[in-house]
Amino acid sequence: MKRKVTIVGQVTDIEGRKWDVCEVRPTKHGFSLLFGIPEVDQGVLYGLNFSLIATQELWDFWDANRTELHGFVFDLSAGRTTLKRMRSRLGFHFRHDHWDFWMDRADELNSLPTYVFAEKYGVTEQRVREWRYRVLGQTARDIGWWRKPRVLKILLSELSLSQAGKKLGISISQAHRLRKRAIAEAGQALRPG
Known about the structure:
Elements: E1 4-6, E2 9-12, E3 18-26, E4 32-38, E5 44-46, E6 51-52, H1 56-64, H2 70-73, H3 80-89, H4 94-104, H5 106-111, H6 114-121, H7 125-136, H8 149-155, H9 161-168, H10 172-190
Antiparallel strand pairs: 1-5, 2-3, 3-4, 4-6
Helix pairs in contact: 6-7, 9-10
């Protein structure tokens, strides 16, 4: 027995094809998923399966969240396999998207403190450290880097060790060790003779 399908509207997908919309499923992300069939001349169709329609809203959502974890991207009102196939068809790929995201920002990854990069791009500091190692490899600062005037100013300031460490992209214990050395060297520089 064939089922009767009612068309609730029409839409053009991002590839320019016209679709008859047969089902609308709201999402909690502010847009709806549309399901339907390619446009045909009849107003009522029989026995066809609906397909997810590649709307601009769906593409924009996935594009804006390329580097989000899998659970969030698939938190839509459709089956996981349906969503995976559509993402693949539209050119989204988690591994490639992650790699591209970090490689495009390699210079900033190298130059910005961890917490600044994390705040700027909305990622955790742990992910910044992990990807810094993947993209740049093991890096070490130049010997005596902490003796630069800008760094000494932070180390010798009234900032807490936690605040100084964040500004310099180092741990609290390293900030403590370097502050002690900076104070000792500043004291020696002030001694006469």
